[in-house]
Amino acid sequence: MGLDLREGDLDGFFRVPFEIYAADSPYVTPMRADLKRYLDPARNPLMRDDGGRLTFFTAWRDGRPVGRLTAHTHPSSNARHSLRRCQFGYFDCEDDVATARLLFEAAEAFARDQGCDELVGAFNLTAMQQAGVLTEGFDNQTYTDMVWGAPHLPRLLDACGYAPMFPMSTFEFDVGPDTADALLGERQRAVLAAPDWTWMPITRSAFKARFEEARQCLNDGFSDNPMFVPLTPAEFDFQAGEMMWIVDPRIACVAHYRGEPAGVVICIPDLNPFQKATRGRMGPLTLFHFIRERLRRRRAVIIFYSVKRDLHGQGLNGAMLHRVVKALFAGGYRQCGVTWIADENTASLRQMEKLNARRLQRLNLFRKGL
């Protein structure tokens, strides 16, 4: 039967990693229901509200899905950064150059049809998206919102004409009785002691208000970061809204300064063991797996932290992290992951040094001019 390409085949797209990666690999699938939402232009705000275009491809060999790839445009990003960029994502593929070329040739044709002059990825596939292709750390177990791909993927990208750019790392640190104190200096202690600062837990009853404040802090604090585009309420809610059912209010907070939102740390229990156990599908044992992992969870992950720009330099970042790490230890968590930090983000990298964090993964974006 040979090799052929299908477009818009959700079932095959979902199956690819299960066909090509070993069951004991660190790969963790998104829930199939979430993947279906992400790939639906009528539901995903990046396409529905922003005018972006989206397609996805699956490569089949002898009746088996053995490769997959998305391609989409993000008009607000291109307008903000003066680009004509198309983005690819969810690149998983058997170790075969012909399969990879079949996928990327289709994505490149789509990009040219949209008037784009480059294809860059991986971006997986919301405004708060996972980013990057794994280049080091293939044996390490990932946390929620981290990507994993096989060691041959960077080589396939190179064979298809893609060059690495924008290096990033993810991190992991041990949560011990004294871990949080390493973050404290004079400025951080002053923030923690001053009555102008208050700490608002993200409880389920206050979830909507706290997450709108979190969006405001993220948009302001990240405004000058490369590639960042401010998130609309719909974009933020599309992915973050589901956190209401998994948030642990002890380990996430919004900081207020004189009654106004000033900074945020979003830290959640690591869901990867649950998703690994369910293989990404809802079924009769889903609730059992959820309760079991909830009772024995020892790992959490910091999804992001941000401070509004006019409050930079006052020690708030370290003070927030100090409170969260103390709460992690009190809550029984013993390891914490941190999602990707760009090599150029020296301030966040200094926080990782203070926490004695170890690098878990190295990642890059990959780019090809068209």
UniProtKB/TrEMBL annotation:
Domain N-acetyltransferase: 245-355
SUPFAM superfamilies found in the cross-reference section: Acyl-CoA N-acyltransferases (Nat)
InterPro entries membership: Acyl_CoA_acyltransferase (IPR016181), BcerS-like (IPR039968), GNAT_dom (IPR000182)
MF annotations from Gene Ontology: acyltransferase activity, transferring groups other than amino-acyl groups
Entry-linked Pfam families: Acetyltransf_1
Protein name stated in the entry: GNAT family N-acetyltransferase
UniProt source species: Brevundimonas goettingensis
